[in-house]
Design a protein that fits this description.
The radius of gyration is 21 Å and the shape is globular. The protein is an alpha/beta fold. The strands form 3 sheets. Strands 2-8-7-6-5-3-4 form a 7-stranded mixed beta sheet, sandwiched between helices. Strands 9-10-13-12 form a 4-stranded antiparallel beta sheet, covered by helices on one side. The structure holds 4'-deoxy-4'-aminopyridoxal-5'-phosphate (PMP).
Amino acid sequence: MAAWEKNVRRVIPYTPGEQPVRSDIIKLNTNENPYPPSPEALKVLQNMEGQILRKYPDPAAEELIQELAGYYRVNPQQVFVGVGSDDVLAMSFLTFFNGKKPILFPDITYSFYDVWADLFRIPYERQPLNDKFEICTEDYKKDCGGIVIPNPNAPTGVEKDLSELEEIIAANQDVIVIIDEAYIDFGGESAIKLLSEYDNLLVVQTFSKSRSLAGMRIGYAFGNEKLIKYLNDAKYSFNSYTMNTVTVAMGAASVRDEAYFRETIDKIIFTREWTKKELARLGFVFPDSSSNFIFASHSKCPAVKIFEALKSQGIYVRYFDKPRIDNYLRITIGTDQEMKILIEFLKQYLGENV
Ligand code: PMP
């Protein structure tokens, strides 16, 4: 070991899902939206002028902030934006979790939380989900340094009742509670409506799933004005220009196109419900999902085998080789056509292998 290595901040990074270069695969492994972004957002991209890009972007991303504030009926001072919700969440961990007590999050959850906690030296304690993969409210009613809960949870897709989340937020008013709503638009009930009552609540959402803009990297958070000011102070102490000009304009255009948003969401929900029925018919079990993915296990065929068989056919789903979930596949909802191909292959494969 070189002497200078003693001073290195060592971290084990998060591993994102595979992004294969081949374009002929059915990609159901990273919860992307199978439909393109709003045509209005794409128009903005096509019409972007070089003269605009010559200049630095608006550090406050005002156009996007205004659009989000209007759409969600909050004050613009209650909105924070970042480079995907990963950036927003990381910034929130850095800003709000500076106590000595551990922060709490589920044992089975988005696997970036412990990575950020390790990066920022935040102590944490994982709270076990029950056998139905549900978050147990009582586990979060104890002295702690903060809480982060995704709703619906990932990779399970399980939604927690807003009334139970409210109990957790109410029981922890001395610390910040982050509700990560990356998948809320696919049928869940948002905690945004609790913002006026709890000044310790931060609600984080993203354009990556329901708005088909994962490639643009847009995330945002709502909280009370003081909380958002603290977040902005941290952001401006790190990088003033997190949001680029194209992203800000495309994001705003996407929010304005409500009809397209509803249309694609409805299609995904419809396809998800169809896929649930077909998977159940094939002998899969899964907790009910309110998201754009299904977390499924087969009683007679190991998940890893199905994962490999699917991959060999160019169908990518996500497999986590981790305790408690190593017999599950997380299957993103694609187009109708993609899901039909998946189901047809599974029918044939399970017919021959179980
Ligand atoms: N939260 C959860 C629960 C997620 O699954 C993801 C997607 N990987 C994110 C946040 C981050 O998404 P993005 O940075 O693309 O907004």
